[in-house]
Amino acid sequence: MEGKGIFLVVLLLFSLVAISTAQICPYGSPKLFVFGDSYVDTGNWPKNDRGPWKEPFGKTFPGIPTGRASDGRVLTDHIASFLGIESPTPYQLRDTSKNIQQGLNFAYGGSGVFPSTWAKDSLSVQIDQFEQLLDENEYSQRDLDNSVALVSTGGNDYSLYSAAKKGSNDGLPAFTEGLVRQLAADLQRIAHLGVKKIVVATLPLLGCLPVHIIPPNSYQNCDEESNKNAMIHNQLLQKAVEKLKTDDGNKCTFVILDLYNAMVSAIDQFRQNAANSEYKNPLQPCCSKIVDYMCSVEGVCTNPESSFFFDLGHPSDNGWNAIFSFLQGSLHKDLKV
Questions:
Q1: Among its keywords, does the record have Hydrolase (predicted)?
Q2: Helices vs strands, H then E, count in the chain
């Protein structure tokens, strides 16, 4: 009887999981479509270029460089794992992979909402690529009914704006309004293409990225002006998304992924851990040699597991793990998974 009881308990658990999964994903595993920059790019960066196709990128995961701007996983990998699927194939590798059943990743490192001098594929271009595949019937409406879009972009737009203005904030409010307006139009376009759930990340804690630390190379004080600008952007984005929900009549689920405050909490937690462990200053990047904000081929990252940032602009695998731990709760609530 004892063995039979255990069997019934296990059977009940499997049944509950099956019912829950059926409610979340009535047509099987969800598909994830990803748009944005290096925080979510998993392999669209050109292989013959500098950067994430060279060591020490990928040292922690999967052990070799795969085009991710980190020693390991990036935000996309965590969202995919949360959905119970593998990270979707990068768009540039779709012909060699031939596995697009998990969705596709259109994100391109260095890109922005607006066209960028660092990358050819702006957010609008990435959505064009998605739309073309839909026109070619690569995905059905049934696929889209069970899909999630992840959008994370905007940081590069502000970096380029700051470089063009030589650090001046003259005209920044108008720039921010225009940027958020275009981003909202892109989100609306993704919804009109048939994706039912759209997760859009806020700007991260821009002023605490090592590239913005004051004074340079001290890794002590965040640039609070950059943080303030990111907060203003995020507030406008929140309002724009609320308006999209109203205009859409709630046909599509729009979810704000609060990357900014998750990073605040993760860095605070890191500092607390560092007081009694081998962890170092969270604002100091792991990579020993950096060129154009990214870890160079000659760079060495000896202890990524004790670092929060990999290079001047990107969290390490350890950093992303910490950040995502503060995002899971909202995803469970807003995506109802």
A1: yes
A2: 11, 8
